[in-house]
Amino acid sequence: MAALAVVGMVAAAGCSSESSGEGGAPKPSVYKDGTLRVLASSELADMKPVLEQAKKATGVTVDLTWSGTLDAVEQVASGKADGKYDAIWLSSNDYLRLRPEAAGKLSNETPVMSSPVALGVKPEALARLGWQPAEVTWSKVHEAVAAGKLTYGMTDPVRSNSGFSALISVASGLSGAQAALTDADVKAAQPRLKEFFSGQKLTSGSSGWLASAYAKRSDVDALVNYESVLLSMNRDSKTNLQVIRPADGVVTAHYPLTLLTSAPAGARESGRVLTDWLRGPEAQQAITAQTFRRPVASGVSPAAGLGADKRRELPFPGSRQVADGLLASYENELRRPSRTVYVLDTSGSMSEEDRIGRLKAALTDLTGTGTSETGHRFRDREEVTLLAFGSKVKSTHPYVVEPGRQQAALDAIRADINGLKPEGGTAIYSSLEAAYEHIGKGGQDAFTSIVLMTDGANTEGVGAKHFDSFYAGLPEAQKGTPVFAVLFGDSDRKELTHITELTGGRLFDATGGNGSLNGAFEEIRGYQ
């Protein structure tokens, strides 16, 4: 969820990543004296310069592994983080506190900086609406969206700290809750929440990709994200957004650096030394100047552009049941549905090293079970199309996961997956063109995307130039459908990079030690 940051940047001095991304499988982690192994929100990639300063000042090296919010919570609560990480560094521990089994896992918990959820609006949209920034409330935003006068982007609450905080901010603001959110509050606000999320035109698993996608879209008026992310976008990408903290309240991230009780004594000492330095005046000044987060130390002034006027802190849900219920409601009822075409390589080479078996297993995981947690199976109302190809398109089978009849669709998808057979050549570009033609036939107002999984280079059908010309001739609405490609087996990185850059998608690595195919498909869910 990095603000205009890429995961690879943190492999430099002072911090490193053990995995390929939020959904990748971490490599085994071994404690080294003077090194703090931290499971962290990927938006903290913008802390790299500060952590380099910290290493020089304290001798502590920070070894970062990125994770989504719920995944990090699960790792800590289940004990999987024990011995692998010494600390966690998320935007908030509020959701983690709702897990009783996590209470004994946490030691020192120290806020390092803060940033409230905010709304970044294009100046022309602000003028069109006649808004005065200081008077904007979540209710006003809802009214503009419901009237068709405002569209926006937001990260996925299931995988992104910023998206989760934004969801709670909106739900609290529109429900009028005066205390911790309850199921009754969420239920009462549901009609307005559904109207609010009808205006969401962009979704993403990370703030970095959201910012890039936003820059390419002319039909998105605003972004909901942390204040720090929006101001960083203005500085780094010249987006010129008017950053508004709604007057009826916000949820604020306090980024507590939290030591785990399972950490060795040396790591706990390194954590205390690092935390003390990060809360000192030198570090606090650097943090606010470089990241636009607010300092927590007295006597340190916030960076220019950070408003000093106070905002009410909106309450966090009071129980895990309410928090999980809100997430499930967003996934399956509130947000716009998804339309996804899975373009699946079933060429002869997929028989090697049981690649076809790994593909089947990864896709079958997305059909879930009756007890699958939110975000771990295809959503209600989602249209899932399996397009299998070899030398040409072999089959195109669409399914809709209808509420109340989910199991029938999931069973049918599972049966289709089990029937995939490896044979033939590799017609990547012809198959992508068929996927775009299929997307173009749908009239549903939905988040559309194409997922391409191939283990080789294009050998059949049309070539890259033909596809480029085909894509250039698509209607603008169809051009907004990104291709998320998965590196797997012997796939051509250059070829897939070209496809994702052309279509505004992203490349996910499932080769060797860089991650699993299951992890790649799981991570892509945040972008659909």
Walk me through this protein's architecture.
- There is one protein chain.
- By secondary structure, the protein is of the alpha/beta class.
- It has 3 domains: 7-112 and 255-295, D-Maltodextrin-Binding Protein, domain 2; 115-252 and 311-327, D-Maltodextrin-Binding Protein, domain 2 (3-Layer(aba) Sandwich); 337-527, Rossmann fold.
- It has helices at residues 48-58, 69-78, 94-97, 123-129, 138-146, 161-175, 183-197, 207-215, 227-237, 265-278, 281-291, 320-334, 355-365, 406-418, 428-441, 464-472, 476-479, 493-503, 517-524; strands at 35-40, 61-66, 87-89, 106-111, 113-121, 152-155, 200-204, 222-226, 242-244, 252-253, 256-260, 294-295, 338-345, 383-389, 393-400, 447-454, 483-487, 506-509.
- Strands 5, 6, 7, 8, 9, 10 and 12 form a 7-stranded mixed β-sheet that branches.
- α5 (138-146) packs across α7 (183-197), α6 (161-175) crosses α7 and α15 packs parallel to α16.
SSE topology sketch:
Blueprint: E1 35-40, H1 48-58, E2 61-66, H2 69-78, E3 87-89, H3 94-97, E4 106-111, E5 113-121, H4 123-129, H5 138-146, E6 152-155, H6 161-175, H7 183-197, E7 200-204, H8 207-215, E8 222-226, H9 227-237, E9 242-244, E10 252-253, E11 256-260, H10 265-278, H11 281-291, E12 294-295, H12 320-334, E13 338-345, H13 355-365, E14 383-389, E15 393-400, H14 406-418, H15 428-441, E16 447-454, H16 464-472, H17 476-479, E17 483-487, H18 493-503, E18 506-509, H19 517-524
Parallel strand pairs: 1-2, 1-3, 6-7, 6-8, 13-14, 13-16, 16-17, 17-18
Antiparallel strand pairs: 3-11, 4-11, 5-8, 5-9, 5-10, 5-12, 14-15
